[in-house]
Amino acid sequence: MTTPLIELHHVDRTFKKDNQPIRVLQDVNLSVYPGEILCLVGESGCGKTTTGKIIAGLLAPSAGEVRYHGENVNQLRGERLATYRRDHQIVHQDPFASLNPAHTIGQILSYPIARHRLAANRAEVRRRVWELLTLVDLTPPGDIVNKYPHQLSGGQRQRVSIARALTVNPRLIIADEAVSMVDVSIRISLLKTLQRLRETLGVAIVFITHDLALAKYFAWEGRISVMYLGRVIEVGRTEAVVHNPAHPYTRALIAAIPEADPEITRSKARLTLRSEDIPSLTAIPPGCAFHPRCPFFVPGVCDVAPPPLDVPPNYEQQVACLPLLGGGALTPYAEQDATV
Amino acid sequence: MIGFSTVATPVGILIGMLVGLIPLIVGIRLKKIPAGIGGFFGCALSGFACGFLGGIPMMILTTAVVVSYAYTVKDDPFLSRAALDEVDFTETRTQFLIRSFASFGRALRAASRAVLRNRAGFVGFVGVMFFLLMTTFGPLVIEYDGRAHYYDRLLPGSQTLFQGPSAEFPLGLDYQGRDILSHIVYGGQAVIATAVVAGILTTLIAVTLGAASALIGGIVDTVLTAITNFILTIPQFPLLVVIAAIVNLDDRLWLAVLLAVLDFPTLMRAIRAQVLSLRERDYVEAAFSLNMGLPHIIVREVLPNMVSYIVISTIFSIRAAMYAQVGLVFLGLVPLQEPDWGVMILVARQQGALFLREATSMLLSPILAIALFQLSLVLFTRSLEEIFNPRLREGL
Predict the structure, then answer these.
(1) Measured between CA atoms, how close is A27 to chain B, in angstroms?
(2) CB-based contact (8 Å) between B74 and chain A?
(3) Domain boundaries in chain B?
(4) Mean per-residue pLDDT over chain B, rounded
(5) Within an 8 Å CB–CB cutoff, is residue A80 touching chain B?
(6) B137-393 belongs to which CATH class?
(7) Do A139 and B304 touch (CB under 8 A)?
(8) Looking at this predicted complex, what is its ipTM?
(9) CB-based contacts of B92: which residues, under 8 Å, 6+ apart?
(10) Which pTM value belongs to this model?
(11) pLDDT in tens, A78-93
(12) Number of neighbours of residue B55 by Cβ within 10 angstroms
């Protein structure tokens, strides 16, 4: 197997609020390989964005380490650190906040090129700006370069955002909910642009989303990593995860995806959770964080220690679920036991 | 010493005409003769006003405007509608110079359009220009009347030398029979110059310390915030009065510094808050991710979004400095130097102008001059908002 671009090893991240630590990420292990698509899915507050920012080097982990080509990023200095930063670019969720309103698109794109001397002279910088705009399907570029961000539509701005990320020839783009604030009609074309960039430029994409249907569409050839309350609970090839979900949480998510045909959606077998409420990050349940909601809860097993991420029998993806890893099938939890 | 150092000299007009030749020649070569002639006169006039210091910037501004008429957006391949493989971006150094000049000129024209479009702002602009031109060019037309008069100007049957407006003296005479108009014309120089210097100093201190406080944080932030809290707690004007009574403020520059030091905390706190909020923006994060470096992030990403606020705050600092200054003069805490609008108010009061009908003009003229100048400044900020905010500038 090829060496990963970036690896997270036992990464923890804690934020402080009113002097109370909030554990946003716990023991996250992830690798991103060159040119692949990795989808991070999960509910809001599950730590997807924090993971993305740690991968991008915008946040430091509280514990654990981030390895870039096998080196701990904390030890990177000088030129290596600069390449590490430039190799990982982020495309933000809100296209209205991610571009500086004071500059024209031409300026926004040429600053990084000029700063890192990625073009030989002024003419080359201008040519590169045009190339980038053509690359993200903003044509003719001459109409765009002298405009201010507020003169563009949301979809166009998101494309400029992608073009800006591409100025420094990154090897990994972190798309943090990059299409969720764009009109539905433009989403698919944006995703296609991203796909095409991945194929032609060979950049890896970490696609962060709360929409499993979108992840399924976008990352069909890649991997999906499902997160729940700061932990990765299932990670594997998209096809495997979608067709044969292992973790009860993933099963519930997949079961909740609406199908195009309302008949199918209505007759689809739903997985009823024992509780609709997501536990607060300040009071994460012990053991498997999902156990208070899990329909397959096993007392004495699930609520003791956090389950390790491993490949259970009959599955190809890694799952963090002790009953499954023990080789058994999941059995519905009898509710009356809990009333004792 | 601060002030209008080189005011309207014959040498100035020569310098102005000399540098004015550049836009004129450029205009003729680019076949934009009216614009070229306009540039020539602009340079001559400003050279006349401020000598070399006025001629050079004016030359750059007018040349840029002239060039921007000739080199339009259509001439720049970067903005053409051609496809990528059809364009050639190579250019000589001269071409680049022309292009930069043209885009600068376009920005200037956009700014002047913004001034013309906003009615309140335009009134303010005219007012500010009126006072500036009056204090610079007025001395050419009106002679300073600094000598006390007695018999030659005492009206028959009158008890005082005070006089109301008349055909000979449009603003009347003061307690020594001197022409008030000349005092208004000459008396603005020191007041305006000190206020402007104080306002700019205030802004410089506030922006530097505010940005440092927000970006460095930690102990620096704590100390700077504590200092501003301390200064803000003390009532400003009484403190100024006390300091002015202790320190000898012979030099107007020191007065400006003192005003700035007392005025900066409010603005600094506002700047600090803005930087704190701008620092968290997505585009700043993207700039960190692109490894653009802190200087770029401060100068290019954070500051441009505060420029309109900073410029408007400068205007308000100038306003505050002017009032504080006049207040000090009025209380007699600053060494009095005639001619000065503040001194006029003080002397008018001392000479009993409050009780004499004939003296109304001496009291009201400086007050009106100050009030109108302040009003013009405040109105002008409306235009500045439009000039510095790209959203408002394009009129979209």
Answers:
(1) 24
(2) no
(3) 10-117, 137-393
(4) 84
(5) no
(6) mainly alpha
(7) no
(8) 0.85
(9) none
(10) 0.81
(11) 888 888 888 999 999 8
(12) 28
